[in-house]
């Protein structure tokens, strides 16, 4: 088991502050544009669809589906070495955007198209993390 305190932490800035603060409470939030109504991820200062600055955050369902995934055998930070291989996936969210996130799962269980759900353990994972839906606790 890795020493969680040594995980690298994301840098907080004006664009991602609301997302990271929600994640500290185990909640996934996404930006929605008040101009065009579309959702985007990752957090940014301008809507990627219409360039509006009128972006606000709203709660996401915390569910999604794996689009594509990769196995990270050699993480770029030593605090993750003991956990390799790590599943890193593109996940389509029902809110209408995709995120890149870790999926806590045995690699042989992971398939494109499988449903996933958020793991509300912000003290363990510095960024929103998913697991295969219907597996593990909860
Ligand atoms: Zn927009």
Your description of this structure?
- With 138 residues, the chain is mainly beta.
- The chain has one domain (11-132).
- It has one helix at residues 17-24, and strands at residues 29-33, 39-40, 55-59, 63-72, 86-92, 98-104, 115-118, 129-132.
- β5 and β6 form a beta hairpin.
- The two termini are 21 Å apart.
- The mean pLDDT is 91.
- The structure holds zinc ion.
Keyphrases for this structure?
138 residues; mainly beta; 5-stranded mixed barrel; 6% helix; binds zinc ion
Count up the helices.
1
**Number of separate structural domains:** 1
Distance between the termini: 21 Å
Q: Structural class of the helix and strand makeup?
A: mainly beta
Extract low-pLDDT stretches: none
Backbone CA Rg: 15 Å
State which percent range the strand residues make up: 25-35%
Mean pLDDT: 91
What would a concise description of this structure say?
The protein has 138 residues and is mostly beta strands.
Write the layout of secondary structure elements.
Blueprint: H1 17-24, E1 29-33, E2 39-40, E3 55-59, E4 63-72, E5 86-92, E6 98-104, E7 115-118, E8 129-132
Parallel strand pairs: 6-8
Antiparallel strand pairs: 1-2, 1-3, 4-5, 4-7, 5-6, 7-8
The structure holds zinc ion.
Zinc ion is lined by residues 33, 35-36, 38, 47, 49-50, 52.
């Amino acid at each position: 088991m890795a020493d969680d305190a040594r995980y690298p932490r994301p840098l907080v800035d004006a664009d991602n502050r609301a997302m990271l603060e929600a994640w500290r409470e185990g909640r996934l939030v996404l930006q929605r544009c008040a101009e065009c109504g579309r959702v985007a991820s990752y957090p940014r200062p301008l809507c990627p669809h219409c360039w509006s600055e009128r972006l606000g955050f709203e709660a996401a369902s915390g569910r999604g589906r794996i689009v594509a995934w990769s196995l990270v055998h050699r993480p770029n930070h030593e605090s993750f070495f003991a956990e390799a291989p790590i599943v890193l996936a593109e996940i389509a969210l029902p809110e209408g955007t995709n995120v890149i996130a870790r999926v806590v799962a045995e690699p042989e269980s992971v398939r494109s198209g499988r449903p996933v759900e958020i793991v509300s353990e912000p003290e363990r994972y510095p960024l929103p993390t998913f697991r295969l839906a219907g597996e593990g606790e909860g």
